[in-house]
Amino acid sequence: MCALDYSQVPTEKLLDLCSRSLNTMDGLWFLSVESKYGFDTAFELDMEVWRRVSLIHGRRLAELFAIRKDNPIQAFVELVQADPLKFAWKSEITVLNDTKAVLRRIECPPQEARIKTGKGTFPGDAICLAMYQSYAEVIDPRIKISCLTSPPCAPRPQCWCEWQFEI
Questions:
Q1: Cβ atoms of residues 98 and 166 within 8 Å
Q2: Read out DSSP for the chain?
Q3: Residue 1, pLDDT above cutoff 70
Q4: Cα 44 versus chain centre, distance
Q5: Count of CB atoms situated within 10 Å of the CB of 110
Q6: How many Cα neighbours within 13 Å face the side chain of 8?
Q7: d(Cα 72, Cα 61) in Å, to the nearest integer?
Q8: Is it the case that residue 42 has pLDDT exceeding 90?
Q9: Higher per-residue confidence, 38 vs 6
Q10: Domains plus CATH for the chain?
């Protein structure tokens, strides 16, 4: 048996690989369900999967990184930034204080892949909302989540979507 030496690969490259692999798996799963049962069923199931997996994943991240919850907005942003998916999604926090944060998603592999294959954008705000609501449940259910922009609206030149989180 060949023992691989992961220490020879930069951590960021491993995180990027895992992030892209997870996104690819999710996309292929979605396309398979869409092909067999239609877009509406695939979308409904995808929302439920993202809601559930984000709750589990959020709890794991909060525990792994020992995220303190004494400042809910700061803790929420830490949780979002701890998520390895950020490596594929390329996001930035544009506003951050004790009561509010704004996250801007610069890249969105699912939307970009759909456009590349001629399928067009889909209402990704519902999927992201399910994910962020699960993260808020992990940190503090009082966190209010608002989508400022997201497909099917035309993306802004500087981002695909933008989210506001308030306590």
A1: no
A2: -PPP-GGGS-HHHHHHHHHHHHHHHHHHHHHHHHHHH-HHHHHHHHHHHHHHHHHHHHHHHHHHTT---SSHHHHHHHHHHH-TTHHHH-EEEEEESSSEEEEEES--HHHHHHHHTT-----HHHHHHHHHHHHHHHH-TT-EEEEEE-TTSPPBTTBSEEEEEE-
A3: no
A4: 17
A5: 20
A6: 3
A7: 15
A8: yes
A9: 38
A10: 12-166 (3.30.1380)
What are phi and psi for residue 107, nearest 5 degrees? -120, 150
Integer Rg of the chain from CA: 17
Helices 72-82 and 124-139: angle between axes, nearest 10 degrees: 120
Q: What is the mean pLDDT of the chain?
A: 90
At 56-114, the pLDDT tens digits run 999 999 999 999 999 999 999 999 999 887 777 888 999 999 999 999 998 888 888 88
